[in-house]
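User: Hi! I'm working on a homework problem where we have to compare a predicted structure to a textbook description. Could you give me the structure for the chain below?
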Amino acid sequence: MNEAITMPTLSQGAYIAWQLASGEAMHSGHQYIENADVFIGICKLGTWLRAMKQRGKLVPNGKIDLRGLYAEAETVEETLRTFTLSPITLSNTVRAVVEKGTASHPKRIMHRSKACKMSFQRAAALAMRTRVEEVHCMHLLAALLEQPEALLTRAVAIFGVDIKELYSRIVAITSALDARHGRAEGKAQGVSHLIYVGMDFDI
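Assistant: Happy to help. Predicted structure tokens:
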């Protein structure tokens, strides 16, 4: 009998980045969450965490070590900084390059576009190949840059960075991280590990 294939779940950081991307899509007037929105959400993760901690809105309920969540955001930021890329400056640049949606969409549940769903699928496939049980932000970054959209390429090029080199660095770091952690001893308990007091993803 073949071993059952377990689909990886989203890490805490990847889930929050997704929510930040949803807010980004609404503010930009997009009909769907696009790849650029997810990219911005990942870049904003560290800033969001620091803001929530400062405002007392990020409260551990005792079931998760917050150091892992902060480490995930720090890994993203440090990876970008190896190319002298500021996460906030980069996210603002991508936002400026993105064409604003022309339609007005009231605040509602935002769904991912087909291209965005495919990026999440590539990220899940990457996690499964390395036998880790969570799709984290570095998997998502690798998936987004594996088949980068033109606007992401333009935004990164503004800083004199070749997106292919950035992608290669992200893949290398992701592979090293996954090899270090190996297969998790137990599945994460989903997003219930954190209490977001006064849920605010509009940072």
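For your comparison, note the following. The beta strands are 9-10, 58-60, 134-135, 194-196. Residues 1-5, 183-203 have pLDDT under 50 and may be disordered. Good luck with the assignment!
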